[in-house]
Write a structure and sequence with these properties.
This protein is an all-alpha fold and 369 residues long. It has two domains: 1-123 and 158-191, no CATH class; 203-212 and 229-368, Butyryl-CoA Dehydrogenase, subunit A, domain 3. It is 70% helix and 2% strand. The chain contains 14 helices and two strands; from the N terminus they run αααααααααββααααα. A two-stranded antiparallel sheet has the order 1-2. The chain is elongated and about 100 Å long. It holds the Pfam family DHC_N1. Residues 3-337 form the Dynein heavy chain tail domain.
Length: 369
């Protein structure tokens, strides 16, 4: 009597759940009880409901990725949504991995064991979920080109067949996603050398006129050969170089995760990538110093651009401008002149600090009058 009451409670609980996560957690919680001979035999009536939710979850996953898979044929990696601010390749691989994990959840050990146990005992089709399951079975069999009248199948085979078809759909989907991951990885590997060379050859600095003029110029000279009145400095973004660095950083973390789960498609990391990644600290230190130079240099330019009294230090300003012009023309991320960059850095910093000190002193004098 108590077991019958328990069975009724369990059946009501199962039928009350509407997604796979809820059913999975409930199955784990009552795992040993559900596998009892008497109870498992009575639970066969919930199999249509479980398979219906499985089909709904699987269809949701398919709807989420089928359009992206078709768009990939036309747009390539740009068709795959990138999570957060991740770089394109690692972001695409992680997006695909997220869907692979969602597919894996559908085949968790506890749910798989429960479904196999119940389906081995047959299930009733005399309720709403059973009638829906019969329709689903007929539809799935037809899509596999092996349609036959479900009435010719015994009720014992019907649940097994339905679960097998759903599992096959899941397996095919996982295979597509994993193949796409490998394709993206191989295609990116083939572009590493080209992207790295383009990034290393790019100049570290670029000059432009004041934002109000909105006229970018080459170093210090405008199109007509005249010298620009206001010279502002900026760092060349070198997207290829630092995107490659970010990709490598995320891919190494993703590789560690994949290896811990038995996925080995990222094991073959090119040596060229390893060698480049070992220089990451040096590259970031260079970028930090260049950004400081830009801060000091532009601050000085803003102060002296419209004030005649700074002619007293015009020789120092001209000296800095000459060094910056040389760096703008010759220094790249690969041919990096440490001596020249250090000289520009210290002279810009020293002049910036002197001007700031003079400004502060003048304000103190005015305030004291």
């Amino acid at each position: 009597m108590l077991k019958k009451v328990l069975v009724n409670v369990l059946i009501q609980a199962f039928n009350g759940y509407r997604n796979w996560e809820q059913i999975s957690k409930f199955t784990v919680m009552f795992g040993n009880i559900l596998h009892g001979d008497v109870i498992s035999n009575e639970l066969k009536v919930i199999l249509p409901h479980i398979l219906n939710i499985y089909e709904q979850e699987l269809k949701g996953i398919e709807n989420g990725i089928n359009f992206v898979l078709m768009e990939f044929e036309l747009k390539g990696i740009d068709a795959i949504p990138v999570m957060g601010n991740l770089p394109p390749v690692s972001g695409a691989l992680m997006w695909l991995e997220n869907y692979i994990k969602r597919c894996d959840v559908l085949h968790s050990y506890d749910m798989n064991a429960l479904i196999n146990l119940i389906s081995a005992q047959g299930y009733s089709t005399n309720n709403f979920y059973g009638r829906r399951a019969k329709g689903l079975t007929k539809q799935l069999i037809a899509t596999k080109d092996c349609y036959q009248d479900e009435c010719s199948c015994s009720m014992d085979d019907s649940g097994k067949m339905q679960y097998e078809i759903l599992t096959n759909r899941r397996d095919i989907l996982i295979t597509k996603l994993k193949h796409l991951q490998v394709k993206i990885w191989i295609d990116w590997q083939q572009k590493i050398d080209k992207n790295l060379q383009n990034g290393l050859r790019s100049k570290v600095f670029m000059h432009f006129s004041m934002p109000s003029e909105n006229d970018e110029i080459d170093c210090f000279t405008s199109d007509d050969g005249s010298v620009a009145d206001i010279k502002m400095l900026n760092i060349h973004p070198s997207h290829e170089l630092f995107t490659l660095l970010a990709e490598t950083n995320y891919l190494l973390a993703f590789r560690h995760l994949c290896m811990s789960e038995g996925n080995s498609f990222l094991n073959d990391f090119p040596q060229l990538l390893w060698d480049f990644y070992e220089q990451r600290d040096d590259l970031w230190q260079r970028k930090i110093k260049l950004m400081k130079i830009i801060h000091y240099y532009n601050a000085v330019q803003e102060k002296i651009s419209s004030d005649e009294k700074f002619k007293l230090i015009s020789s120092e300003i001209d000296s800095i401008n000459d060094f910056v012009k040389q760096a703008c023309q010759t220094v790249t991320w690969q041919n990096y002149d440490h001596d020249l960059i250090d000289k520009i850095y210290y002279e810009c910093e020293e002049l910036h600090n002197r001007l700031k000190t003079c400004h502060d002193n003048l304000e103190s004098i005015v305030a004291s009058i």
